[in-house]
């Protein structure tokens, strides 16, 4: 039986599209059961709808405060009974209502713990690093601070700007995301402090 995955996005959704493509193979082990977003009219949501994947929108501005939005988001996610939530270009911080109820991973376009936050590629360039990359990690209460599952390095090239560097990061990011979600789905996982290991068979036991 495939693991049920809910993907959260805020924009283009190229990582989501890569997951949807991988999930067409029944051997992949994960099924994208819904795509959620915090804003209407994103390209990624249109792509998901066109592919017949159920979508939901929980607009941040429709709620009186962050905690009410977080609770609504958690409830909408729960309707799809996910084994795993994947934040793939979701640009809001998920709070305790989501984190406490769902197992969730996030991709971040830098080698954490360097350059957390919303401008990771810009910040890495400004700092002058020669190597940056991408990280997939479990979500915790902090910002880009949860246990790391995998990382891939991407060299910075002379003449790179934010857009050229981010595009090269996204190429390796999509591969890493597909590989990692597939492994989590097929093998399960355990988390011991900051260390994540593959190899639990019943994902429900991880909760
Ligand atoms: C990715 O680089 C992700 O790491 C970051 O936002 C980008 C999303 O790209 N958080 P896309 O929407 O999947 O194309």
TrEMBL record:
<comment type="similarity">
    <text>Belongs to the GART family.</text>
</comment>
<dbReference type="InterPro" id="IPR036477">
    <property type="entry name" value="Formyl_transf_N_sf"/>
</dbReference>
<dbReference type="InterPro" id="IPR002376">
    <property type="entry name" value="Formyl_transf_N"/>
</dbReference>
<feature type="active site" description="Proton donor">
    <location>
        <position position="108"/>
    </location>
</feature>
<feature type="site" description="Raises pKa of active site His">
    <location>
        <position position="144"/>
    </location>
</feature>
<keyword id="KW-0658">Purine biosynthesis</keyword>
<comment type="pathway">
    <text>Purine metabolism; IMP biosynthesis via de novo pathway; N(2)-formyl-N(1)-(5-phospho-D-ribosyl)glycinamide from N(1)-(5-phospho-D-ribosyl)glycinamide (10-formyl THF route): step 1/1.</text>
</comment>
<protein>
    <recommendedName>
        <fullName>Phosphoribosylglycinamide formyltransferase</fullName>
        <ecNumber>2.1.2.2</ecNumber>
    </recommendedName>
</protein>
<dbReference type="GO" id="GO:0006189">
    <property type="term" value="P:'de novo' IMP biosynthetic process"/>
</dbReference>
<feature type="domain" description="Formyl transferase N-terminal">
    <location>
        <begin position="4"/>
        <end position="180"/>
    </location>
</feature>
<feature type="binding site">
    <location>
        <position position="106"/>
    </location>
    <ligand>
        <name>(6R)-10-formyltetrahydrofolate</name>
    </ligand>
</feature>
<dbReference type="Pfam" id="PF00551">
    <property type="entry name" value="Formyl_trans_N"/>
</dbReference>
<comment type="function">
    <text>Catalyzes the transfer of a formyl group from 10-formyltetrahydrofolate to 5-phospho-ribosyl-glycinamide (GAR), producing 5-phospho-ribosyl-N-formylglycinamide (FGAR) and tetrahydrofolate.</text>
</comment>
<feature type="binding site">
    <location>
        <begin position="13"/>
        <end position="15"/>
    </location>
    <ligand>
        <name>N(1)-(5-phospho-beta-D-ribosyl)glycinamide</name>
    </ligand>
</feature>
<dbReference type="GO" id="GO:0004644">
    <property type="term" value="F:phosphoribosylglycinamide formyltransferase activity"/>
</dbReference>
<feature type="binding site">
    <location>
        <begin position="91"/>
        <end position="94"/>
    </location>
    <ligand>
        <name>(6R)-10-formyltetrahydrofolate</name>
    </ligand>
</feature>
<dbReference type="GO" id="GO:0005829">
    <property type="term" value="C:cytosol"/>
</dbReference>
<dbReference type="InterPro" id="IPR004607">
    <property type="entry name" value="GART"/>
</dbReference>
<keyword id="KW-0808">Transferase</keyword>
<feature type="binding site">
    <location>
        <position position="66"/>
    </location>
    <ligand>
        <name>(6R)-10-formyltetrahydrofolate</name>
    </ligand>
</feature>
């Amino acid at each position: 039986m495939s693991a049920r995955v809910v993907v959260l996005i805020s924009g283009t959704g190229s990582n989501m599209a890569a997951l949807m493509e991988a999930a067409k193979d029944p051997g992949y082990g994960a099924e994208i059961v819904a795509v959620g977003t915090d804003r209407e009219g994103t390209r990624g949501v249109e792509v998901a709808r066109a592919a017949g994947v159920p979508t939901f929108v929980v607009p941040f501005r429709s709620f009186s405060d962050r905690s009410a939005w977080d609770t609504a988001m958690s409830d909408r996610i729960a309707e799809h009974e996910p084994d795993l939530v994947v934040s793939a270009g979701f640009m809001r911080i998920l709070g305790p209502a989501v984190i406490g109820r769902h197992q969730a991973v996030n991709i971040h376009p830098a080698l954490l713990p360097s350059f957390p936050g919303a401008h990771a590629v810009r910040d890495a360039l400004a700092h002058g690093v020669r190597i940056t990359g991408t990280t997939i990690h479990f979500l915790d209460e902090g910002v880009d601070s949860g246990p790391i599952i995998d990382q891939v390095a991407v060299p910075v090239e002379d003449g790179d700007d934010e857009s050229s560097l981010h595009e090269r990061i996204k190429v390796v990011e999509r591969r890493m995301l597909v590989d990692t979600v597939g492994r989590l789905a097929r093998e399960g996982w355990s988390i011991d402090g900051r260390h994540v290991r593959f190899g639990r068979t019943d994902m429900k036991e991880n909760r």
